[in-house]
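Ops channel
N.P.: pipeline sanity check, posting one input/output pair.
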């Protein structure tokens, strides 16, 4: 399996090299303008990926017209993933959506090398994942020698274009600065241009170079990579029958022991757990859920590797099916732990993400089981890729933060316990509208916590002109949260930003505020 790209991988003409280098420089400079000093990356990522997709499509139209629809389709998926960050603003979306964009790039590069996604084996897909960063790093280096600099300088249009830029640039900076002084909103729009020529200029140049280098490498890979016939029969790792049998028997014995221990809890339920000496419901639920999910994922990867490398598939399959059965029982145990913990202590973003990941793992286990039965594991990769994309998009569109907030509110009511407002605040701004719906039902200390946190978070104690955000930070969730807070601002307790409170109270927890209510001062959190 060939991973490191070489000059033989590419058919690079001087015309292609020049056009690709110009696109790469433009995308790099755009990345510097968009990504430096931003707080919410949705708009910046969407614009940058759109520009990169236009550059890739333009090059493909001219040099790879046979694969234009492939590039357009997966570019649209990557841009759609970035656009989700315009609507959502939580940790889960910030981690998964860029991963979806990278996954789209992996599939494009793999298909352009002649390996169809529907026929890809797990090792080939792993090779494509490793190939992506390597080709991004080395693609530009392989192309630079093809650029004919002398002919470009001798072009009759070169110096007139250069003189025009030298004349226009100072005029743009001067007139743009005057417009910025006249209007605060225009200043936030034009500010990123001014920063490029200010004290941050070295940082902008460095970011432009790095982003442009990686983008150029990917553009080279996408636009002119040739098919390699050796991909179909790429050699893989081979493990002997004795070694495979020892590994499988050892794992099977360990898994069976764990399953036997877990069976009473699986069938006995909550009563068996609570009646076990030294074991509480909280301890049982808290310990092991993430570990069991990790064990399932690691074992599945191991089975895929052994299945691809074993020299005797017929003797491997019985052990593999036995391990798959144990894995399903372990996943049931993990699901039971999560359900018990959610019923007693509520839901968190990490638990929701783990539950979604566990669902995806269960699907992969089922597909891998069918692959074992048929002796062809090429179905696993496309099912895993398409199901991962579908699950991530569905989870983001379902608004996981609101799901968590609703669940925790209902759990607190049913169990007659205090709502963990501090954790909900840590989920970000998407929780604001839902908490405002419950605001009147909260205790006074919790209201103070919300009011103080949101006052700091949204700058409510600052003038409106000072609260104007950089246009690159625009986000629908943040906008809705800010509007909701401003509408309910009159219902907030009176906040006193007192110097003593900042020394006495934890600033991360209480935002340095005291609340006034009924002519008395109460520190936040006292109920």
């Amino acid at each position: 399996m060939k991973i490191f790209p070489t000059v033989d991988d590419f058919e690079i003409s001087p015309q292609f090299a020049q056009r690709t280098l110009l696109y790469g420089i433009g995308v790099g400079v755009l990345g510097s303008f968009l990504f430096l000093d931003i707080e919410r990356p949705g708009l910046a990522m969407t614009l940058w990926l759109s520009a990169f997709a236009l550059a890739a499509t333009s090059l493909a139209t001219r040099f790879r017209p046979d694969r234009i629809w492939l590039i357009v389709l997966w570019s649209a998926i990557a841009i759609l993933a970035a656009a989700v960050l315009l609507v959502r603003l939580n940790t889960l979306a910030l981690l998964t959506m860029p991963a979806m964009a990278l996954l789209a790039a992996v599939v494009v590069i793999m298909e352009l090398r002649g390996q169809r996604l529907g026929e890809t084996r797990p090792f080939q897909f792993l090779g494509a994942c490793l190939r992506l960063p390597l080709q991004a790093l080395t693609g530009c280096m392989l192309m630079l020698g093809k650029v004919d600099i002398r002919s470009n300088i001798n072009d009759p249009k070169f110096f007139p274009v250069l003189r025009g830029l030298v004349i226009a640039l100072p005029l743009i900076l001067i007139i743009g600065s005057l417009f910025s002084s006249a209007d605060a909103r225009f200043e936030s729009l034009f500010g990123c241009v001014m920063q490029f020529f200010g004290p941050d200029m070295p940082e902008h140049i460095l970011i432009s170079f790095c982003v442009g280098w990686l983008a150029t490498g990917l553009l080279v890979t996408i636009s002119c990579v040739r098919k390699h016939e050796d991909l179909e029969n790429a050699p893989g790792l081979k493990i002997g029958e004795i070694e495979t049998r020892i590994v499988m028997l050892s794992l099977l014995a360990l898994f069976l022991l764990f399953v036997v221990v877990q069976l009473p809890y699986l069938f006995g339920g909550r009563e068996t757990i609570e009646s076990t000496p030294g074991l509480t419901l909280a301890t049982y639920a808290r310990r092991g859920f993430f570990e069991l999910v990790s064990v399932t994922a690691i074992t599945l990867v191991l089975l895929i590797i052994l299945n691809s490398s074993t020299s005797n598939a017929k003797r491997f399959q019985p052990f593999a099916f036995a391990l798959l059965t144990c894995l399903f029982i372990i996943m049931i145990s993990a699901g039971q732990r999560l359900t018990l913990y959610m019923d007693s202590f509520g839901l968190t973003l990490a638990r929701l993400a783990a539950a979604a990941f566990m669902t995806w793992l269960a699907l992969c286990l089922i597909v891998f089981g069918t692959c074992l039965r048929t002796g062809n594991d090429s179905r696993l990769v496309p099912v895993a890729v398409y199901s991962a994309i579908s699950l991530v998009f569905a989870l983001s569109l379902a608004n996981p933060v609101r799901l968590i907030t609703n669940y925790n509110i209902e759990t607190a009511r049913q169990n007659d316990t205090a709502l963990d407002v501090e954790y909900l605040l840590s989920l970000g701004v998407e929780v604001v509208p839902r908490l405002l719906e419950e605001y009147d039902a909260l205790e006074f200390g919790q209201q103070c916590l919300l009011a103080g946190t949101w006052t700091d978070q949204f700058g409510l104690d600052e003038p409106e002109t000072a609260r104007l955000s950089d246009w690159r930070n625009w986000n629908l969730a943040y906008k809705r949260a800010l509007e909701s807070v401003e509408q309910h601002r009159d219902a907030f307790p009176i906040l006193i930003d007192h110097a003593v409170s900042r020394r006495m109270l934890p600033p991360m927890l209480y935002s340095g505020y005291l609340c006034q209510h009924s002519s008395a001062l109460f520190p936040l959190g006292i109920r």
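N.P.: looks fine end to end. The first strand starts at residue 494 and ends at 496.
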